[in-house]
């Protein structure tokens, strides 16, 4: 069975064909990084309009690259949330139109469950249950216990900024550009985590918090005039990255 998946929850337009739930037949992604970089972050209205321009070519390529026809597709899956409302509407409406025109069944997929189920793709041995899932992205930082297929228990979540969002804001503080994750990682390679930054452990809880860490970095950057010294910027990037990863790994 071949399923065409469509994903437009944020700033990337993606379509893929997956066979029997595990084998990736094609995977096409149209990135908007260069478009949003000039703003230092994702602009929802710009993202949704860009999805309108790219969704049909992306879907077409997902079928043409592996030389598939519509007759080879057995169903449609589409992200229905969480995500940016305007972006989600593009993917959902295109998926519904295809399903109606081609008389194909359609299934809505939770964005976060999609992150988890990516661990079943192109693997000889699937994960064993129960499994602990750490979901860290631009908008989410969640710790989830997956007991069986479709059975999830949320153990922890961010109380303020998601880790990816914190990386974007930290990169902006340090003048490293967008997207923040790769920018911080690249700068950190030439630095050392020698600066003192706080960790929000939130005792007796599996929740995360990164807002205080971000604020501490801002105060540190102003106080020690870090921005005027590239080596100090690298140290700040390494220290921030270490603080975030320390909390994520320890709580997991």
UniProtKB/TrEMBL annotation:
<dbReference type="InterPro" id="IPR000905">
    <property type="entry name" value="Gcp-like_dom"/>
</dbReference>
<feature type="domain" description="Gcp-like">
    <location>
        <begin position="24"/>
        <end position="252"/>
    </location>
</feature>
<dbReference type="Pfam" id="PF00814">
    <property type="entry name" value="TsaD"/>
</dbReference>
<dbReference type="InterPro" id="IPR043129">
    <property type="entry name" value="ATPase_NBD"/>
</dbReference>
<keyword id="KW-0012">Acyltransferase</keyword>
<dbReference type="GO" id="GO:0002949">
    <property type="term" value="P:tRNA threonylcarbamoyladenosine modification"/>
</dbReference>
<dbReference type="GO" id="GO:0046872">
    <property type="term" value="F:metal ion binding"/>
</dbReference>
<dbReference type="InterPro" id="IPR017861">
    <property type="entry name" value="KAE1/TsaD"/>
</dbReference>
<keyword id="KW-0479">Metal-binding</keyword>
<dbReference type="InterPro" id="IPR022450">
    <property type="entry name" value="TsaD"/>
</dbReference>
<keyword id="KW-0808">Transferase</keyword>
<keyword id="KW-0819">tRNA processing</keyword>
<dbReference type="GO" id="GO:0061711">
    <property type="term" value="F:tRNA N(6)-L-threonylcarbamoyladenine synthase activity"/>
</dbReference>
<protein>
    <recommendedName>
        <fullName>N(6)-L-threonylcarbamoyladenine synthase</fullName>
        <ecNumber>2.3.1.234</ecNumber>
    </recommendedName>
</protein>
